[in-house]
Amino acid sequence: MEGSEVVTSAHGNHKPRLLFMGLKRSGKSSIINVVLYKLPPTETVFIPATVVIKKHALYSYRNFQIWDLPGQIDFLETNFDTESIFGAAGAMVWILDAQDDYIESVGRLTETILQLQQQYPDIKYTVFIHKVDSLGSDFREDIVRDIIQRILDDLNDAGLENPPVSFYATSVYDDSVYEALSKVLQLLNPQLAAFEALLNTLAGACKMQKLYLFDVLSKLYIAADTSPVDMAGYTLCSDYIDTIVDLAEIYGWDRGKLRTAAAPATDEREEHAEDCNGTPAPPADESDAESSINGIRGYCLYLKEMNKYLALIGFSKEPRFAVEKPLIDYNVQVFQDALTAVLALK
Questions:
Q1: Nearest C-alpha neighbor of 30 from the set 18, 17, 15, 20
Q2: Strands of 299-305's sheet, edge to edge?
Q3: What backbone phi and psi angles, to 5 degrees, belong to 313?
Q4: CA 164 to CA 192: how far, in whole Å?
Q5: What are the φ and ψ backbone dihedral angles of 222, each rounded to 5 degrees?
Q6: Cβ burial 200-210 (10 Å sphere, 16+ → b, else e)
């Protein structure tokens, strides 16, 4: 079928699927390359336009599919097999370029949601209002507000009340895209409520202001406690995990083939991915990376690897953090045992 060729870096329809859609040159491939392949944001201008569907895989405690759909093709036309594309999709991210004339993109998005809702009502929708980094702070707020209002008004006018759409202002030049994509992946996690309950209990017991459960390779967090997000603290945690994981790669345990969050498929890698999908991660042992540091911009940071894929990281402003660290270590070990039990559930 013309225009429907697929370039794939992983296969298997049993993995949770996330679709990236939007008009061409809106930034879909840039986000994927920065987050999954650690491409420097300044080099995203050299990424060629996507002309075929590209499949990527995020290798973690659970393997996710991320499909990059070219913006110049309308996949809802009758000459495409929509079931093979949207049938197994758990979430769709629409990338909207805030620097461009977004009227066309808003119209395409509204039409796409209305059509998909009829056939695939379980798909969850997220809009990344992208490339906001170059907009002035006041102008940025006006643009974001106008885009959200237009989309909601169009959907309401079409009869879709309380549409299942969430919105995030993003840029590849800061942590906003990691924060937003983390929220999207959480929509595909059936164990999210259990993770949040465990994190809430641990945060209260350890007097932590915020706790995250990070995927150590992609730097996305799969769960957090339900307290409000402190972006300054989140940025510290994000930078901290980069440093600690890099050191663990040099001096710590052997992570095998999992050196990046995503990579072109090979037989050996695919075999490993299939084996770890749906099974509990390896148990923690004495080689787990662990670190804590006090007095960073008024925060005390704490990190502990839970297994090969996940790390617990959080921050506290408690002045007695260093004194109470042995108790925190004990509570974290209890949390780790409970997390392992949750991950072992089918």
A1: 20
A2: 221-224, 210-215, 310-316, 299-305, 290-296
A3: -145, 140
A4: 18
A5: -90, -15
A6: eebbeebebbb
Tell me which residue of 111, 93, 1 sits closest to 52, measured CA to CA: 1
| Strand 210-215, strand 6-8: pairing | unpaired
Count Cβ atoms within 10 A of the Cβ of residue 149 and give its class: 0-12 exposed, 13-18 middle, 19 or more buried.
exposed
Q: Which of 300, 299, 282 is nearest to 291 (CA)?
A: 300
Q: How far apart are CA 216 and CA 36, in angstroms?
A: 12
Contact partners, residue 68, CB within 8 Å, separation at least 6: 20, 28, 29, 32, 50, 53, 54, 55, 56
Distance CA 335, CA 198 (A): 7
pLDDT digits (tens, 9 = 90+) for 3-28: 434 444 333 446 899 999 999 999 99
Q: Per residue in 57-97, pLDDT tens?
A: 998 888 899 999 999 888 887 678 889 999 999 999 999 99
Per the CB < 8 A criterion, the answer to whether 198 and 339 are in contact is yes
Beta-sheet strands, E only, within 179-240 = 210-215, 221-224
| Separation between Cα atoms, residue 209 and residue 315, nearest integer Å | 6
Main-chain phi, psi angles of 245, to 5 degrees: -65, -35
Record the pTM: 0.84
